[in-house]
Design goal:
Beta Polymerase, domain 2
Length: 235
């Protein structure tokens, strides 16, 4: 047993590693949350077992989301202390080491599972294959995946093979690109406005100016000092 880890979580992690030893290397536990990394071609097999087998009984998919690892852990600005060291610390983390094993796979899908019977939670991480990235759909296993997969397709451009109705769900029908990709422009590609002369909504090139929002830098020149200290200086 791992020191400081909930025994139930540690036990579940060991059982998962034993049961799926042929398709996944290991599980990791972060803040009492199990994360199991599995290859895309084993997703349906593993997901079916996790739901059907009484030992696990993960009968609910609580959430599904995408992750773009293309700029994971990189720093776009420098400050004196917290921002740079805080954001870039992911470069040294174990999570990034897991991602680096699939360095040619930019996108991952995260599945948050819940077992009501056993009162346990599990997070699956699956890296998408190919370009465009493709992952098998789990709608046939958990019905709640339907709109979640459509959202991940819309925002990240990940295709879900076998989904019954894979359409955009948040953006417009003629929308170009996928807004949650790291390389998607902050100001977008086009803008929409109502044209008084034409009497309808039209699309046109973006007119707003892109700007990088740099967080406030902690300064040592006393401008943010407390009133008591400032008052004593002038006494």
């Amino acid at each position: 047993m791992i020191h400081g880890i909930d025994p139930a979580v540690d036990n579940l992690c060991a059982r998962l590693e034993e049961r799926f030893s042929e398709v996944t290397g290991h599980c990791e536990i972060i803040v009492d949350q199990i994360i199991m990394n599995i290859p895309a071609d084993a997703l349906i097999e593993v997901a079916t077992a996790l739901r059907a087998e009484e030992e696990f009984a993960f009968d609910q998919l609580m959430d599904l989301c995408g992750v773009d690892y293309s700029a994971y852990g990189e720093v776009d600005w420098q400050t004196q202390t917290a921002t740079s060291s805080g954001f870039s610390r992911a470069v040294e983390s174990h999570a990034l080491k897991i991602a680096s094993q699939a360095i040619d796979k930019r996108f991952a899908i995260i599945y948050q599972l819940l077992s009501l019977k056993n009162n346990q939670r599990l997070r699956l991480r699956v890296f998408a294959d190919g370009e465009p990235p493709v992952i098998p759909s789990v709608v046939s296993i958990w019905n709640s995946a339907d709109w979640y997969e459509r959202e991940a397709f819309d925002l990240f451009g990940v295709l879900f093979d076998g989904h019954p109705d894979l359409r955009r769900i948040l953006t417009d029908y003629g929308f170009i690109g996928h807004p949650f990709r790291k390389d998607f422009p902050l100001e977008g590609n086009v803008e929409v406005r109502y044209d008084e002369e034409k009497g309808r909504v039209i699309y046109q090139p973006v007119t707003i100016e892109n700007r990088v929002l740099v967080p406030r830098v902690i300064r040592d020149d006393g401008r943010f000092g407390s009133p008591e200290i400032e008052g004593s200086d002038h006494a």
